[in-house]
């Protein structure tokens, strides 16, 4: 482990005293191997929000790492030409590397393009290279252009890697790549940043999800909302949190991810925050969120 574990208490988030929080942290650090429950069925979750910088990639890679560290097999599909998820998971994504682009073209299988992350033997990533930048336009003229990722993620194709969880990290747009992700998944996870403009654009996202539900993927549900970058010093963060909980109820995870420098530093080292500083507040929060995701997945199928 690198770095300090004694971060200041996020009392505003948890409502715990610093001592209680430290005790809980020590317990969790002592039992890193406790397994999370397997889902009742393979869960394919699209992480979407057309706003950039809300924590899609950070949430994708850290939830994925949290689940993988606790015994579950996880595949991350990096569907953003920026390749940030590939970077954070430390997988090669130089131009020419077999990637999600070739997967969309039907030239390689997901199993062939997937690389094991050095952060866990259970954690795989299909990287995105810069080649994906043109895909949004190239897809327009392709046959079954909205369903190419779904076809690539057929049960048969996934059986080779046999993941319990597949996370698809979307680009910050509602274009064809995001539509492909929504058609390929059963669930959408929406990260919402606890800031003023957070709710702006959300109705557009929800309308698009409804369109996909109506025309392309009847079984799609918004299963999970994750509040990110919570700053306990601002009243605004609480207002956004309350408003989101009021609108979306149980869909919102109890765990809120605090704004934390360690979280933003980790990708610079090609790591998730769980690998970079496992004792940090950000890492602990993502671990709690991953546990919640796993516990929900182990309940009766939705
Ligand atoms: P998106 O994928 O939605 O564009 P990112 O996950 O890349 O968003 O996050 C945007 C930026 O904010 C990144 O630089 C990331 O490191 C940083 N960031 C994300 N979550 C946090 C957090 N909880 N605390 C501090 N910085 C964060
Ligand atoms: Mg991103």
Q: Which structural class should the secondary elements be placed in? A: alpha/beta
Summarize model confidence as the mean pLDDT.
Answer: 90
Instruction: Specify the CATH architecture of the domain at 18-186 and 262-299.
Output: 3-Layer(aba) Sandwich
Number of strands: 8
Q: How many helix segments? A: 15
InterPro entries: AAA_dom, DNA_Partitioning_ATPase, P-loop_NTPase
Function: May play a role in septum formation.
Family: Belongs to the ParA family.
Protein name: Chromosome partitioning protein
SSE layout and pairing:
Elements: H1 11-14, H2 18-30, E1 43-47, H3 56-69, E2 74-78, H4 84-88, H5 100-105, H6 110-113, E3 115-116, E4 123-126, H7 135-138, H8 148-152, H9 155-159, E5 165-169, H10 176-184, E6 187-193, H11 202-215, E7 221-230, H12 235-248, E8 252-258, H13 261-265, H14 273-276, H15 281-297
Helix pairs in contact: 3-15
This protein binds adenosine-5'-diphosphate and magnesium ion.
Adenosine-5'-diphosphate (ADP) binds at residues 52-58, 84, 172, 228-229, 257, 259-260, 263-264, 267, 282.
Feature tags:
single chain, 302 residues, alpha/beta, eight-stranded mixed sheet, 15 helices, 15% strand, disordered N terminus, binds adenosine-5'-diphosphate, binds magnesium ion
